[in-house]
Design a protein that fits this description.
Distance between the termini: 112 Å
CATH topology of the largest domain: Aminopeptidase
CATH architecture of the largest domain: 3-Layer(aba) Sandwich
Shape: globular
Radius of gyration: 28 Å
Number of domains: 2
Number of strands: 20
CATH superfamily of the largest domain: Zn peptidases
Largest sheet: 8 strands, mixed
Structural class: alpha+beta
Strand content: 25-35%
CATH class of the largest domain: Alpha Beta
């Protein structure tokens, strides 16, 4: 009995100790890195060193990221390239094999336009912390937070570099280290940044969706952010429908309903032919989003409003990008199918004609919030009182002139710069192995205008002329190259090789010989 009582007392004592012991300390919360604006109350923006340190901290904390180098800039700086995926993939082929959508986020193409850079970092942190789980389930993210590393590091006073921008106090400059505007370089691809992007991004990862993040000034309005789809009218209709008519209207609606933010298609108020209207920018392929559309992919331009404070611009861009990615995941199947079908139709030669001239058109009228006259605000200050003016919204282009798409082009071997340009874009260029004469058309020049001033390092050329049918002898033909228009990038082929187009290889001075009235162009169309 005594033994039984003693045993019970021991058990009671042990239980008492167990129930009165201090609980174990909870695990320490993960200390996720902060961006430079978060650390400085939005007084400063991130340097390239800040960006790399932030990414390294995420990786050290186990984030589903890899960081590598996109390429080396004109100023010999390394451009950081980030891939975010779970499970991780090595390239675009693996991503597609996994059934996931590839989304490319590009920020800071203009060094002083800084909020996109900060938003990309913030989104990578959110994904790493377990937010947006549906994104990782359905998407692979490829990111260049600082695409224009030279421009970002060319620090100067904010109001000197961008006199219309409301902070931060010190920012970079618009061009790259070679003085080029990288958002004018897509088709001519002369900068090391664009050449690296062509290799690693457009040919390597081949993203389904591209978001290009900017800041804009211009007309003083009440929109926190404006946007644009691909504007070139030769963009595949399925791509246009998804970008312009599905994703962006839905994003606009959600921005208004969830946060009370007013957004609209990119534009400025202009007087044209005595009538005021809201007009978008150029449809030319030199611009990132238009270029991506010509590659049969979805592209969306984001333009935060420069005279709003940095904190507001970061918040608006974050909301917009998050909304677009949410919508892309919801439409992932349709986006992948549209990209695939556009490629297949190009290979099958289902394009009869493509555009040689464009006309901007309106989707209709709607109220536009504009700063009231006489507000007395400086260019970099937020607008004063707003008024509403109903204006036609010119947000798209139609073809005003078109031309039959040839079965291909013939290029003489001497035009090595043009051949190299095409191959950089991923366009198939093959030696001509014909065993018989080629039925061709030659462009006879009747007019050749060269720009009086240099633009992006070129005095651009505009030609006029007529196409004349001829026959190219077998031996002569075998001394050149053939570029078929039955390939996925057929729309881009046409835009680069038609000799009288504003953004083609001829216009950008890639031809080796002299171009003058009475002469002809070395690029021949195959009949």
């Amino acid at each position: 009995m005594q033994i039984f009582i003693f045993t019970c007392l021991i058990i009671i004592a042990l239980c008492s100790v167990a129930f009165t012991q201090e609980p174990a300390d909870p695990p320490s919360p993960i200390l996720w890195p902060k961006t430079r604006p978060e650390r400085t109350e939005n007084a400063e923006t991130s340097t390239l060193e800040d960006v790399n340190a932030f990414l390294d901290q995420l990786i050290a904390l186990g984030a589903p990221l890899t960081r590598s180098v996109l390429g080396v800039s004109d100023g010999k700086r390394e451009i950081p390239l980030v891939v975010c995926a779970s499970p991780m993939v090595a390239d675009g082929a693996e991503a597609r094999a996994s059934g996931r959508l590839v989304i490319y986020l590009q920020a800071n193409i203009h060094g002083g336009e800084v909020e996109g850079k900060e938003v990309v970092l913030t989104l990578l942190r959110e994904i790493s912390a377990g937010r947006h789980p549906q994104w990782l389930a359905r998407c692979v993210f490829v990111c260049t937070p600082v695409y224009n590393v030279d421009g970002n590091e060319a620090w100067g006073e904010g109001l000197e570099n961008r006199g219309h921008q409301n902070g931060p106090s010190r920012i970079g400059q618009r061009p790259n280290g070679g003085g080029l505007d990288l958002n004018r370089d897509c088709q001519k691809a002369e900068s090391p940044e664009m050449r690296a992007a062509l290799t690693a991004i457009y040919r390597g990862w081949d993203p389904h969706v591209v978001l290009d993040l900017h800041t804009t000034n211009g007309t003083r309005h009440g929109y926190t952010l404006t946007y644009a789809p691909p504007l070139h009218p030769d963009t595949d209709p399925r791509i246009l429908e998804l970008a312009r008519d599905t994703l962006l209207p839905a994003a606009r609606k959600r921005m208004r309903e969830e946060w009370g933010e007013e957004t609209n298609d990119y534009g400025n108020v202009e007087d044209r032919k005595g009538a005021r209207g809201w007009y978008t920018f150029s449809p030319l392929g030199r611009y990132v989003t238009n270029y991506v559309g010509l590659r049969n992919r979805i592209a969306i331009l984001s333009e935060a409003t420069s005279y709003l404070p940095l904190e507001t611009r970061i918040t608006s861009t974050h909301r917009f990008v998050t909304t677009v990615i949410d919508l892309a995941t919801e439409h992932a199947g349709a986006i992948a199918a549209a990209c695939r079908d556009a490629d297949q139709d190009a290979v099958a030669g289902k394009m009869d004609t493509l555009s040689t001239a464009f006309t901007v058109v309106s989707r209709g009228e709607e109220p536009v919030p504009l700063e009231a006259p006489g507000a007395g605000r400086a260019a970099h200050e937020s607008p004063g009182a707003l008024i509403s003016e109903t204006l036609p919204i010119h947000d798209r282009f139609t073809s005003s002139a078109s031309r039959t798409v040839p079965r291909g082009y013939w290029i003489p071997a001497a035009e090595s710069r043009i051949v190299s340009l095409l191959r950089r874009h991923g366009i198939a260029v093959e030696p001509c192995r014909t065993e018989s004469p080629l039925a061709i058309e030659r462009f006879a020049i009747t007019k050749a205008d060269r720009a009086a001033r240099s633009f992006q390092g070129h005095r651009t050329v505009r030609l006029a002329g007529t196409w004349q049918p001829e026959e190219l002898a077998t031996v002569a033909a075998q001394a050149g190259y053939v570029v078929s228009t039955r390939q996925p990038l057929a729309r881009l082929v046409f835009g680069l090789l038609e000799p009288d187009l504003e953004d083609g290889a001829i216009a950008w001075e890639f031809a080796e010989g002299e171009l003058a009235p009475g002469g002809s162009v070395p690029l021949l169309r195959l009949r």
